[in-house]
UniProtKB/TrEMBL annotation:
Source organism: Streptomyces cylindrosporus
Descriptive protein name: RNA polymerase sigma factor
Record-linked Gene3D superfamilies: 1.10.1740.10, Winged helix-like DNA-binding domain superfamily/Winged helix DNA-binding domain
Family: Belongs to the sigma-70 factor family. ECF subfamily.
Annotated SUPFAM superfamilies: Sigma2 domain of RNA polymerase sigma factors, Sigma3 and sigma4 domains of RNA polymerase sigma factors
Length: 212
């Protein structure tokens, strides 16, 4: 009897892991890129996710125990990978915070004060759609971690409540309530961020007019 992909992964079959990577690496990359906004960081998350998946292969639920057994065989493995990616992202953010805190304790150098603003940022600021996207990304970063995670999994990555719950290790009802709060909070934060950006543009414009 031929083993399923899930059973082959649990058994440590390298070819099964190659199939898993080919099927889901792009989805994991998209998930990480949307949350980090950094292509390089997203590539690192993909690498770490599949390394962790190999290390944790024996903890993968056996055949028939997936949260959403109605999904095709390969798709049913995606919540497991998203759960690992979520933990990798959490660890990455903690490491980044520790790194930033360490840098903040170093003496400031003149070069740190003379950094030239990125021209791309100024260009994007002129485009309304891009500005809305930037405001939404800023707002998303201000959501509590659990709400940000369920929003990314359910809205961006299209997981069901059950599959997102499997990824995060919480009940589907918890996912549903977190997502409802995330939508409400994100709408308020996005509107506030857009208003703040508009105020900054008005201030800059007034300053430029006075200086002419």
């Amino acid at each position: 009897m031929e083993l399923s992909l899930r059973e082959r992964i649990r058994a440590g079959d390298p070819e099964a892991f190659a199939e898993l990577f080919d099927a889901h690496a792009r989805a994991v990359y998209g998930h990480a890129a949307r949350l980090t906004g950094d292509a390089g960081a997203a590539e690192d998350v993909v690498s770490l996710t599949f390394l962790e998946a190999w290390r944790l292969r024996e903890k993968l639920r056996p055949e028939g125990a997936a949260a959403d057994p109605g999904l095709p065989e390969g798709e049913g493995l995606r919540p497991w990978l998203y759960g690992i990616a979520t933990n990798v992202l959490r660890n990455t953010r903690r490491a980044a915070r520790r790194h930033s805190a360490a840098l903040a304790r170093l003496p400031e150098r003149p070069a740190d004060r003379d950094t030239v603003p990125d021209f791309a940022d100024a260009l994007v600021g002129r485009l309304e759609d891009a500005e809305r996207l930037a405001a939404a990304r800023t707002a998303l970063g201000r959501l509590p971690g659990p709400e940000r995670e369920v929003f990314a999994l359910c809205v961006w990555s299209g997981l069901s409540y059950e599959a997102a719950g499997e990824a995060l290790g919480v009940p589907a009802s918890t996912v549903r309530s977190r997502l409802a709060r995330a939508r409400q909070r994100l709408r308020r934060l996005s509107e506030a961020e857009l208003a703040a950006r508009g105020g900054r543009r008005d201030t800059v414009g007034s300053t430029q007019e006075r200086n002419r």
